[in-house]
Amino acid sequence: MSAFLLSVHVLAAILTIGPVAVAASMFPRFARLALAAPDDPRNVAVVRILHRITRVYTVIGVLVPVFGIATGASIGVLGDIWLIVSMILTAAAAALLIAFILPHQTRVVRTLDAGSDDVDEAVPDRIARRLGMLTGVFNLLWAIVVVLMIYRPGSTTGVGL
Predict the structure, then answer these.
(1) How far apart are CA 141 and CA 85, in angstroms?
(2) DSSP string covering 32-75, please?
(3) DSSP 8-state assignment for residue 151
(4) How far apart are CA 80 and CA 75, in angstroms?
(5) pTM value?
(6) What's the CA angle centered on 89, arms 153 and 66, to 5 degrees?
(7) How many Å apart are CA 100 and CA 75, to the nearest integer?
(8) Burial code of 91-112, b = ≥16 C-beta within 10 A, e = fewer?
């Protein structure tokens, strides 16, 4: 059962967190392009698609910690510090995504939907720069979690400490 839970956990992480990380990372660049030329339908469409990918895969990404906790419980490591730190970092990444990244993306999309007359150039540029920074922090948190999951103390694979 543990192998099944671990497999679902890893697959869910790859198939949900990966797209969120990539789409959220690409969003600021295309947001700047779309906001600079709101009449260009290509960049506006890319921004909308990247926002939708981020939003939809965030919801599906709930499977990752659910199966992670189930896996940790099945192999008896829920009290291990590496897992506790991983869960804290996962919660921080989720909070960053839900509280800041998605709302800023939504604001950019709404600005583009409002049309070029309502675009205050300074505000969207600040939002795009802030999104780049926030997404970088989000991805760094996930990178640390992945490292902790692979290089965990007490590993039975001989990889950890």
Answers:
(1) 11
(2) HHHHH-TT-HHHHHHHHHHHHHHHHHHHHTTHHHHHHHHHHHHH
(3) S
(4) 11
(5) 0.88
(6) 85
(7) 34
(8) eebbebbeebbbebbeebbebb
Contacts of 93 (CB under 8 A, 6+ apart): 138, 141, 142, 145
Find, among 105, 139, 137, the residue nearest to 124 by Cα: 105
Judge contact between 112 and 47, C-beta under 8 A. Answer: yes
Residue 41 is encoded by which pair of tokens? 């339908």
Structure tokens at 35: 């906001």
The number of residues in the chain equals 161
CA angle, 51 as apex, 30 and 96 as ends, to 5°?
105
Q: What is the pLDDT of residues 81-134, one digit of tens each?
A: 999 999 999 999 999 999 999 999 999 999 888 875 555 566 677 888 899 999
Residues 6+ apart with CB under 8 A from 130: 104
Q: What is the spatial distance between Cα 9 and Cα 16, in angstroms, rounded to a whole number? A: 10
